[in-house]
Design a protein that fits this description.
353 residues; alpha/beta; 5-stranded parallel β-sheet; 13 helices; 10 strands; 45% helix; binds fructose -6-phosphate; repeat; carbohydrate derivative binding; glutamine-fructose-6-phosphate transaminase (isomerizing) activity; Glutamine--fructose-6-phosphate aminotransferase [isomerizing]
């Protein structure tokens, strides 16, 4: 139930730190170490390449998952949109393993891929929130999200849960994982809590920058680019503001032509090694009139309105940078009088192809 919350979406955003702690608790062995079943570890180790297949927000989580799997466990990973995969099937490696990411576990586009790869004889894992859902039943292995029921159509806590479960998978399949994932995830949960407590800031920024605007751009590099894709999807689907996420380095190759006076641009900067590059992109869009909000781990110049994120491990920043983006979308939709939990034309589980 919503309890005192005006919308399920807001409640589900606030639940994210608890969900993350629940995931940590559910993926621990008797010695308190992060663990997944040995069948899954073996299946991943035997595979020469992982193919993540998903739609929408789950696809965006898959992009972050690829970065985690490749960087932490050195496992080559591709990410595919389910509806494209069926007829635009990539050339597969010798020993592929498929990972289906789906909150509902019922998405028809993803199921169509599962049917196809099963015919080809390939193994599969489902990462889903709903035990016993179609994808859960029809795959060889399963990992649960433990996010609890997600009622709002716009996915929030399932998205960060997907990233958390993928990060646990990445560190448990790597024999000499130097990453203290358990500690780092716990720290991320505390940082999430701090971000959720800062609602007045997002509300004010949404009012000032977004509610009157026709469009909005998110820019970022590396994993921040993936967060930009998800941030833009969230804003589009619930506030109906046309929003796009761009790789910040691509601006000069075309997109910057869209920037006019007062065009809102949200820059996400969590990666130290490329922070100067994205900061110079902020200067470029500001010089063309953009109204910039930065979501970043460092304080930028005083003239830029900013949402500061406390330190988390650089590989896990997508877990926390999603939260300000979700809340900006929420408040933009609220002040535009949109039907936040049930946006027009959308269904919670998409059972048609
Ligand atoms: C966006 C959203 C959708 C779903 C997509 C896949 O907020 O909810 O983009 O992520 O329809 O759904 P699942 O994860 O249930 O397969």
């Amino acid at each position: 139930e919503k309890g005192t919350y005006p919308h399920y979406m807001l409640k589900e955003i606030d639940e994210q730190p608890f969900v993350l702690r629940r995931i940590i608790a559910n993926y621990q062995d008797e010695n308190g170490k992060l663990a997944v079943s040995s069948e899954i570890v073996n299946a991943v180790k035997e595979a020469d390449r992982l193919y993540i297949v998903a739609c929408g927000t789950s696809y965006n989580a898959g992009l972050v998952g690829k970065s985690l799997l490749e960087n932490i466990s050195k496992k080559p990973t591709e990410v595919h949109i389910s509806s494209e995969f069926v007829y635009n099937t990539p050339i597969l490696s010798e020993k592929p393993l498929f990972i289906f990411i789906s909150q509902s576990g019922e998405t028809a586009d993803s199921r169509a891929v599962l049917v196809k790869i099963k015919e080809m004889g390939y193994p599969s894992i489902a990462i889903t929130n709903v035990k016993g859902a179609t994808l859960y039943r029809e795959t060889d292995y399963q990992m649960l999200l433990h996010a609890g029921p997600e009622i709002a159509v716009a996915s929030t806590k399932a998205y960060t849960a997907q990233i958390a479960v993928l990060s646990i998978l990445a560190c448990t399949i790597e024999d000499d994982c130097s990453f203290d994932m358990l500690n780092e995830l716990s720290r991320a949960a505390s940082v999430m809590e701090g971000l959720c407590d800062n609602k007045e800031l997002y509300e004010n920024l949404a009012k000032e920058y977004l509610i009157e605007s026709r469009n909005c751009f998110y820019i970022g590099r590396h994993v921040d680019y993936y967060t930009c894709l998800e941030a833009a999807l969230k804003l589009k689907e619930i506030s109906y503001i046309q929003a796009e996420g761009f790789a910040a380095g691509e601006l000069k190759h075309g997109t910057i032509a869209l920037i006019e006076d007062n065009t809102p641009v949200v820059a996400i900067i969590t990666q130290e090694k490329i922070n100067l590059n994205t900061r110079s992109n902020i200067k470029e869009v500001k010089a063309r009139g953009a109204a910039v909000i930065a979501i970043s781990m460092r304080r930028l110049s005083a003239e830029t309105d900013q949402i500061i994120i406390d330190d988390v491990h650089e590989k896990l920043t997508p877990l926390v940078s999603a939260i300000p983006a979700q809340l900006l979308a929420y408040y933009a939709a609220l002040y535009r009088d949109c039907d936040i939990d049930k946006p027009r034309n959308l269904a919670k589980s998409v059972t048609v192809e």
